[in-house]
Amino acid sequence: MSSPDPASTTPDSGDRLLGEYRLKTLLSENTVIRRWLAEQVSVSRRVLVDELKPGPTAPREEFLADVRAKAAVDHPLIGSVFEAVAEPDCCFFAHELLPGASLEERREAGEPMKPARLAHVIRRVAEAELHQEGAGIATSPLGLEHIHLDDHGVIRVENLAEGGPRSIDHSFRDIARLGDKLRALVADGQPGATRMLTLLGWMRGEGLESHLGWEQVRDIALQIEQQLAEPVAPAPTKAAPKSGGKAPIALITGAAALIAVVGAIFALKSTPDPLDQPLAQKLPETVLIPAGRHPTADGTEHELKSFRIVPHEVTISQYATFLETLETLAKDKRERSFDHPDQPADKSSHIPEDWAQLLAAAKSNSLWNGQTVSLDAPVVGVDWWDGYAYAEWKRGRLASQEEWFAALRLDLPSPATLKPAGWIAVTSETADRTPRGLVGMAGSVCEWTREPAPNPANPLGEPKWVLIGGSYLKPGTNALAREWVDDRSLRRKDLGFRIVFDAD
User: Which phi and psi (to 5°) does residue 86 adopt?
Assistant: First the structure.
């Protein structure tokens, strides 16, 4: 990397070169850093360049520690670092210029947002912040000026990572800050405005005995978003058929109902830590399966390392979020980031079979192929390649049949006695539930597993891909059911998947 020409380093001069970056406009400046709008000459790309001001007192090591922290962040919703340069006479880094207007610009322009759109923004920001919280990445304070929304509705967050340890106070600080600043963006008189203002009040800590965390913010925002996206039912007429489906489990119709939701999240101070108290109908994130020799479906035993398994199949809502991420990545032609190396070249997307109709029915809790479906029901119509990509995105993997069966058998001597359930929302209330809290193994949908294996009925035959577990379309099956198929591209209306993680 070449150093800048000393003859053209006047701080406020535009159009000078810093490495391969042509500095155009000085956007901001403080005692330490200048931020420039620049052009990366080699690819004609507009970027931002943060330049450490020269001088004997410049905090060079602190600046570089922040740059290293930013470069370590890898998330589609968070801005990327392109290059960092540290030379004796210059120190700078180039990073992504996020598209669209910031929420601060919208606030200053007096452009409020519909509650449904704002709930979506809050959910996506919460997902980005949960990534950084989970990775222990320290961040500088988050403001409206750091959140961008482009003309296609894509949300991106500026990379605010900084060197040093992360404190839980970082999350509480940013949640409260957004709860205050976002009030100006709530469109008055729109459906859901009261719900949104209530959520923002809780983010500020009003009426609660414990802080909201990013996970709770995400879950409540998602509930508001889903409810406001549901179509308004027409007025009943004599010819209108009666609905035979159940009412949505988590239907929130106003502030009073939202208070009930948060009441389930936060117990009184006399109870254990509220963050350890799940919602009444919410399953644990994962179930730990200890290391050791575990029984297999073939009557043998298999040595397994400890692992964590998600207690339910991936849901329609979860898979929809995955597809949204791929849409964001597609803008930079990175939508294949999670694909298996052997995925067929002619497989161009991970959209499930009949996805538009399935998602619409799930959002309105209506019928799809004769079945009442909700966003919390397991996703179907996915092939093995789809399951692999989703698991990679979550930094997990598809369960092997040995792992799946070991999880099933834990504290359950007779799996055949497990009562099958239909293709319904995944909750802790279903009868198809093991003693360790895993659901949908005897019924619901059958599931892809990670590796091919021989069929015990033909032990010398070629290994094939194993589908495991019962299916709502095959009432006679149960948790011991298995099928062997040749084609990983198979998609069915009763076929989904669940994922596992290493125990570490």
Answer: -130, 100
